[in-house]
Amino acid sequence: MKFILLVGVVILAGPCSSDKTANNENADEATIANTDTKAEKKKAAKKEKAKDNFSGLKLHPLKAACVDYSMSGKLANGTSTKCHRKYAQEQVDIQHTKVGFGGFTQEQNTHNIIIKDIIYSIDLDKGTAKRTTNSNYDELAASMKGKNAKDTSEAFLAALDYTPTGETKTIAGHKCNVYSGPIGNGCFMPNGLMLEQSVMGTTILATKVTLNNGGDNSNYTLYKKYDVTEGPDVGAILDMMGKQ
To answer: How far is CA 224 from CA 60, 130, 191, in A?
Structure first.
């Protein structure tokens, strides 16, 4: 009410040009502040929606698991460990490999961590860590909420044109079903864990399977030991590639 009275006085008195400028500047500042507030509210609402989407989300039929792999072939050799917990809302991929092509060989020692929509890529040799965001994760979470993770895994294999051959194998003490695909074959357990995959002359073979245990907690928090830099938005990149 006081502000209204003051404005009335100024109008009646006939403000000079400097008063008009001040009023315009105040109006501009108020507009900017209002825009910032709206943006902050929108961002907060998006985070709250993401929490709802993440709640109860199952990206994998198993709550937790770890698989150690050996990798051999024309393009790559080495070992890797893939683990997940909280139904794959949190994942770890540790690789120690030598990648070669056309006489060129490069050693890669990496530790990748996925915590919901955040991806941490750690180069163990360089001692660097990068944080990227998958902005498409909210959409994925919403689309999968309430669905059976096993059905989703089978749908994913079908989308990659993997078809069951009817054969089975026993690898690392566990049975898996053999699938054939356009660029190679794979062997997957009924719970969705991959035990073998052959692509372009390189074979990835499970050497150890641990069920109901996602591995050491330190593997999921390793990024905290690094000076993490910001990387690009993964979702935005995928969207841009899809539009090309």
So the answer is: 26, 11, 32
Q: How far apart are CA 41 and CA 54, in angstroms?
A: 20
Distance CA 111, CA 60 (A): 21
Sign of the Cα pseudo-torsion (56, 209, 205, 77, in order) = positive
Q: What is the pLDDT of residue 241?
A: 43
Walk me through the domains of the chain, giving residue ranges and CATH numbers. Answer: 65-243 (2.50.20.10)
- Other Cβ atoms within 10 Å of 141 Cβ, number: 22
What gap in Å lies between CA 64 and CA 126, rounded to an integer? 30
One-character DSSP codes across 204-216:
EEEEEEEES----
What pTM did the predictor assign? 0.72
pLDDT tens by residue, 140-191: 777 777 677 677 677 778 777 889 999 999 999 999 999 998 888 999 999 8
Per-residue pLDDT at 6: 29
